[in-house]
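F.,

This is the one I mentioned.
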């Protein structure tokens, strides 16, 4: 699957013949100032929770791309108030079959309020299944024993895990999360964007290598295939 990084926790993944965009936070991210959001294509936008660093460009990108937005009920209601019509509300524990594959919403241990202060519902992670295999997008979360359920339920080809610490789990807990979900290939997210979440790249990668796993830290604006 082709993955493109747009900074912080924002990626596109091409799977099942469609482009899925996760947690768009680009124009307000100084590290992503070289990204022109008008160049981004998406068929679906998936939003893990309501915090500004995950929804900041959601309305504009939904309008620019015409993508359908998949998020929890509260975030979908907030988007509808801003004129976004193509939406699909979900919640934790549920799954739905889209034309690219199956989306299952899973637990994330975090908080969620929207930029205007309104209630953002519960934070979620996504488990995506398509004909090319499955991947897990954890959203913002602590390490939680529930991740074992995900590993038992599906064979996960790769996973996006937060590694920046402070607001989410850090590297050491992400290593345990990788073990819980039984996944060798991890793509790091939610690091370096602000002073509280700066990480040492070499040290982080080495820790994963020592554990027999691989940590990808992608350059913003660059693509890779996993
Ligand atoms: Ni958050
Ligand atoms: Mn966040």
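My design for it:
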């Amino acid at each position: 699957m082709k993955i493109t990084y747009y900074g912080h926790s924002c990626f596109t993944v091409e799977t099942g013949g469609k482009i899925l965009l996760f947690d768009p936070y680009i124009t307000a991210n100084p590290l992503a100032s070289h990204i022109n959001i008008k160049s981004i294509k998406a068929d679906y936008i998936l939003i893990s929770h309501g915090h500004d660093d995950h929804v900041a460009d959601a309305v504009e990108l939904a309008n620019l791309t015409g993508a359908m937005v998949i998020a929890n009920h509260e975030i979908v209601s907030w988007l509808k108030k801003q004129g976004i019509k193509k939406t699909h509300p979900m919640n934790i524990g549920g799954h739905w079959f889209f034309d690219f594959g199956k989306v299952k919403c899973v637990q994330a241990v975090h908080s969620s309020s929207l930029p205007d202060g309104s209630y953002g519902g519960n934070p979620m992670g996504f488990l995506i299944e398509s004909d090319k295999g499955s991947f897990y997008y954890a959203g913002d979360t602590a390490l939680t024993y529930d991740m074992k359920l995900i590993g038992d339920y599906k064979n996960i080809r790769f996973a996006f895990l937060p590694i920046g610490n402070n607001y989410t789990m850090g590297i050491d807990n992400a290593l345990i999360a990788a073990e819980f979900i039984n996944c060798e290939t991890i793509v790091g997210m939610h690091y370096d964007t602000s002073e509280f979440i700066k990480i040492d790249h070499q040290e982080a990668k080495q820790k994963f290598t020592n554990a027999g796993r691989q940590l990808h830290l992608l350059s913003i604006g660059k693509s890779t295939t996993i």
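Residues 2-225 form a domain with the Metallo-beta-lactamase; Chain A fold (CATH 3.60.15.10).

Talk soon.
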